[in-house]
Design a protein that fits this description.
The protein has two domains: about 10-55; about 75-470, Up-down Bundle (Growth Hormone, Chain: A). It is built from 26 helices and two strands. It has helices at about 35-55, 75-95, 100, 105-110, 115-125, 130-135, 140, 145-160, 170-195, 200-220, 225, 230-240, 245-255, 260-265, 270-275, 275-300, 305-310, 315-325, 330-345, 345-365, 370-390, 395, 405-430, 435-440, 445-455, 465-470, and strands at about 10-20, 20-30. The longest helix has 30 residues, at about 405-430. It is mainly alpha-helical.
C-alpha cells in the first residue's frame, strides 16, 4: 500500500507491505544535500507506522515537529533543500554575520584601523544595498531561478577575491559590490521560496533558508583561527568561497522557476508601482519597522566579536567557543519561530520573541562574565525566533509582479537603518564604550514592535493572492 506524505513526511515512493514477520515500510528520504539530518527522524516515524499496522490501528497522520505543517512532495523538498544550500553559500562570505562580521577584529589588525574607522567602513558597506536597486528587479523581469544562479556564481568569485584587497579602502569597496549582489540574490531566494510554498509553510520555508545562512556563518566562525594567523590566513578564509561554485551549479539544476512568476511574467514590472498609492502604505509600514530594528541589530551583530576581543579580552579560541555555545542554539529559535508563526500567527509569536531578544541582547553588552554568556544565548535564540516569525511579511503584502522589487526596496530601507545604527554606535563608542553604545540603541526595535502590533495585518495560512491583492492563479504544484 502506498503511503501518503501525511503518514510518512519528507519521503518519496513510501509504501507499506505485509510480510511473514509483520508489516515493513520502504521509502527514500526525498531531501538532497541534508537528508542525513532527517533520516533518524523519518526512520522513527516509519517504525511507528509499522507498529500501528501490525496492531490493526489507524496509521498516524499527525504532523511531527520536524516536518512542515503542510505535506509536500519530493520535488518541493528537493527545491527547498537547494535553496537552503544556496543560502548557506551566500551566508559564508556575505550578509550579516558572514566573514565581514566574523573577521572584523583581524581586518582591523591587517589594515591597522580604529573602531571609529571600522564603524564608518561598515556603514559604507551597507550602502551597497543601493546598488542592489539596479539589479534587484531583474528577478521580477527575467525570472527568479535564472537570476539566483547567476548572482550566486558572481558572489563566489568576488568573495574569494576580497581577501586579497591591498587596503582597507579596497576591502570596503569590494564588500560594497558584494553586498549589492548578496542583497539581490537573497531577495530572489526568499521570493522564489515564498511563491512556491504552500500557504501554511511560508514561514517554515523561510526559516530553513535562514538556517542555511546560519550554516554559512558557522563555517565563517570555524575559519576564525585561520583568519587570526595573519595576512595569508585572512586571504585564505575568503578564497575558500571558490569551492562553492560546483555546489551552486548542482543546486541550480534542482530548481524550477516559480509558477507564480510564470503566470505573471507578461505583466509590467516597475519600481514606481511599489511607490504608488496602492502599496505605499504597506511599504512605509514594513519599512519603518525594519529600519528601527536594523538600527539596533546591525551594530549588535557587527561589533559582537570586536566587543569580546577588545573589551572582554577573549582569545581566538575562546571567541570561537563562545560563538558556538551562544550562537548554534539560535537555530532552534529560527525553526520554532517559523513553525509557530505558521501555526499560531505572525504577530502573536514574533512580537514577544523580538522584545525579549532585544532586552537580552542589550544585557549582553552591559554585563561581565559569566552573565554575558546567558544573555547572549537567550538574546540570539529569541531574536532569531522573532525574525523568523515576521520574515514573511515582506513578500506577503506585495503582488508577484513587483515582489522582488518591493523586497529590494525594503532591504534598502533596512540597510539605511543598519548604516545609521553602525554610525551611531561607532561615534558613541568613544565617550560611552562600545557596549553601552550598542545597548542604548535597543529602544529603537521596541518602537518597531509597537508598529507591528498595532498596524500589521495577520497573514498566516492565507494565500499570497489574498494577502497582496494579486490576481489569483492556478498552481499545478508548489515547485
Amino acid at each position: 500500500m502506498r503511503l501518503e506524505p501525511e503518514v510518512l513526511p519528507l519521503t518519496e515512493g513510501a509504501s507499506l507491505e505485509r510480510g511473514v514477520d509483520g508489516h515493513a515500510v520502504s521509502y527514500r528520504v526525498a531531501i538532497p544535500f541534508f537528508g542525513l539530518l532527517w533520516r533518524p527522524l523519518v526512520a522513527r516515524r516509519a517504525r511507528r507506522v509499522e507498529v500501528a499496522a501490525d496492531a490493526g490501528d489507524p496509521l498516524p497522520t499527525d504532523v511531527p515537529w520536524w516536518a512542515p505543517p503542510v505535506p509536500t512532495d519530493a520535488s518541493t523538498n528537493a527545491a527547498v533543500a537547494s535553496l537552503v544550500l544556496l543560502s548557506a553559500v551566500i551566508g559564508y562570505a556575505g550578509g550579516i554575520g558572514g566573514l565581514l562580521t566574523q573577521t572584523l577584529p583581524y581586518a582591523a589588525d591587517v589594515y591597522h584601523v580604529t573602531d571609529a574607522t571600522l564603524g564608518r567602513g561598515l556603514a559604507v558597506v551597507r550602502g551597497g544595498v543601493v546598488l542592489a536597486l539596479l539589479v534587484g528587479a531583474v528577478a521580477d523581469r527575467r525570472g527568479r531561478r535564472r537570476f539566483v544562479i547567476a548572482a550566486a556564481l558572481a558572489h563566489c568569485v568576488l568573495g574569494a577575491a576580497l581577501g586579497l584587497a591591498p587596503s582597507f579602502d579596497f576591502y570596503v569597496a569590494g564588500h560594497v559590490l558584494l553586498r549589492a549582489i548578496d542583497v539581490a540574490v537573497g531577495v530572489a531566494l526568499a521570493v522564489l521560496a515564498v511563491e512556491s510554498s504552500p500557504a501554511g509553510n511560508r514561514a517554515v520555508t523561510l526559516s530553513l533558508l535562514a538556517l542555511g545562512a546560519g550554516g554559512g556563518v558557522v563555517l565563517a566562525v570555524c575559519a576564525l583561527p585561520v583568519a587570526a594567523a595573519g595576512r595569508a590566513g585572512f586571504a585564505a578564509v575568503y578564497g575558500v568561497g571558490l569551492l562553492a561554485v560546483p555546489l551552486v551549479i548542482v543546486a541550480g539544476r534542482r530548481l524550477a522557476e516559480s509558477p507564480r512568476y510564470l503566470a505573471h511574467a507578461e505583466e509590467p514590472h516597475r519600481y514606481r508601482e511599489v511607490l504608488g498609492p496602492r502599496y505605499r502604505g504597506s511599504l512605509a509600514m514594513v519599512g519603518t519597522a525594519l529600519f528601527l530594528s536594523s538600527s539596533f541589530y546591525a551594530p549588535g551583530v557587527e561589533f559582537f566579536n570586536r566587543y569580546l576581543d577588545d573589551v572582554r579580552d577573549f582569545s581566538a579560541l575562546k571567541l570561537v567557543l563562545f560563538l558556538a555555545v551562544t550562537g548554534l542554539p539560535a537555530a532552534l529559535g529560527i525553526v520554532l519561530g517559523g513553525r509557530l508563526a505558521d501555526l499560531r500567527g505572525r504577530k502573536a509569536v514574533g512580537v514577544p520573541l523580538l522584545v525579549g531578544g532585544v532586552a537580552c541582547y542589550s544585557g549582553f553588552y552591559l554585563t561581565p562574565e559569566p552573565w554575558l554568556w546567558g544573555f547572549a544565548l537567550a538574546g540570539q535564540i529569541l531574536l532569531a525566533g522573532g525574525a523568523s516569525a515576521l520574515a514573511p511579511y515582506g513578500s506577503e503584502l506585495f503582488p508577484t509582479r513587483i515582489r522582488a522589487a518591493a523586497n529590494t526596496i525594503l532591504l534598502v530601507i533596512g540597510v539605511g537603518g543598519s548604516a545609521l545604527g553602525l554610525a551611531l554606535a561607532g561615534e558613541l563608542a568613544e565617550p560611552l564604550g562600545i557596549g553601552p553604545a550598542v545597548a542604548v540603541l535597543g529602544a529603537l526595535p521596541l518602537l518597531g514592535a509597537v508598529i507591528v502590533t498595532i498596524w500589521f495585518p495577520e497573514t498566516a495560512r492565507r494565500e499570497l493572492e489574498d494577502t497582496s491583492g494579486d490576481i489569483p492563479v492556478t498552481l499545478e504544484k508548489p515547485f
